[in-house]
Automatic annotation (TrEMBL):
Region (Disordered), start-end ranges: 1-20
Pfam families for this protein: Aldolase_II
Protein name listed in UniProt: Class II aldolase/adducin family protein
SMART domains tied to this protein: Aldolase_II
InterPro entries, per database record: Aldolase-II_Adducin_sf, Aldolase_II/adducin_N, Aldolase_II/adducin_N_sf
Organism: Cupriavidus pauculus
A GO MF label: actin filament binding
Comp. bias intervals (Low complexity): 7-19
Family: Belongs to the aldolase class II family.
PANTHER family: ADDUCIN (PTHR10672), PROTEIN HU-LI TAI SHAO (PTHR10672:SF3)
Gene Ontology cellular-component terms listed: cytoskeleton
Class II aldolase/adducin N-terminal domain: residues covered: 26-206
Length: 257
């Protein structure tokens, strides 16, 4: 399949306009590299987007045709909510793929980062009628806090965008039926850590279902555990992200370029 589109262009600087954007670029490039190392990528498809600090309506996204494991901070393309590339760049972008992200960013002011993947475990659980079950502590992080959206085909229209964001509501994560997973974060770190937790929960569920009958905790326990893991709405990833960056700096530091 090919979505190599040449989008329209908008005025503005294509590169970093200050240290805050430079920091977000590094974090976003790191998220791409880390996702590749976990084998969450899907050839050159799927995206992780982030808002540009100080530039309302502007976002950073991967150039189309690049694998996740080769994304650098300087490769990220600045794009606006209409799918227009900001400034001069020779990098193509997947406007069709960005449409989903644009809808979520527009509907959720807290969604600084939107991460959408086609990981195998997430797609498999999304195709199960009951979705994610409270079979593990990882899954209970999303107990009562996980949205679902039914599959509507390849073409992503504004009408589906409205339905998808209505399904998402104020949840931090979503199973896109027969399609994949989505998380939103107030930081790149939060979106990444939420995705890591969701994928692990899906992997545990698939593994447990290979054996004998599964055991679920009583609803009251699942509710209490979910509330404990929610931790009053504390931002996820604040401790995990520096450790992940240190690991990446040891083995794959090129993401910072």
């Amino acid at each position: 399949m090919s979505f190599a589109l040449q989008p329209g262009r908008a005025a503005g600087p294509a590169g970093p306009t200050g240290p805050e954007e430079a920091r977000v670029r590094v974090d976003l490039a790191a998220a791409y590299r880390l996702a590749a190392r976990e084998r969450w990528d899907d050839l050159i498809y799927t995206h992780i987007s982030a808002t540009v600090p100080g530039e309302p309506g502007h976002f950073l996204i991967n150039p189309f045709g690049f694998a996740f494991d080769e994304i650098r901070a300087s490769d990220l393309v600045k794009i606006n909510g209409r799918g227009e590339v900001v400034g001069e760049t020779v990098r193509p972008v997947n406007v069709t793929g960005f449409a989903l992200h644009a809808a979520v960013h527009a509907a959720r002011p807290d969604a600084h980062c939107v991460m959408h993947l086609h990981n195998t475990a997430g797609i498999a659980v999304s195709a199960q009628a009951e979705g994610l079950l409270p079979l593990s502590q990882h899954a209970m992080r999303f107990h009562g806090r996980l949205a679902c959206h039914d599959y509507e085909g390849l073409a992503f229209t504004p009408e589906e965008g409205a339905r998808l964001t209505a399904s998402l509501g104020d949840h931090p994560a979503m199973l896109l039926r027969n399609h994949g997973t989505l998380t939103v974060g107030r930081t790149v770190a939060e979106a990444y850590v939420l995705m890591a937790t969701l994928i692990k929960a899906c992997e545990i569920q698939l593994g447990a279902q290979l054996g004998s009958a599964t055991v679920q905790p009583p609803p009251a326990i699942a509710d209490r555990t979910s509330l404990q893991l929610y931790d009053g709405g504390a931002v996820e990833g604040e401790l995990e992200w520096p450790a992940l960056l240190r690991r990446l700096d040891r083995i794959d530091p090129g993401y910072r370029d």
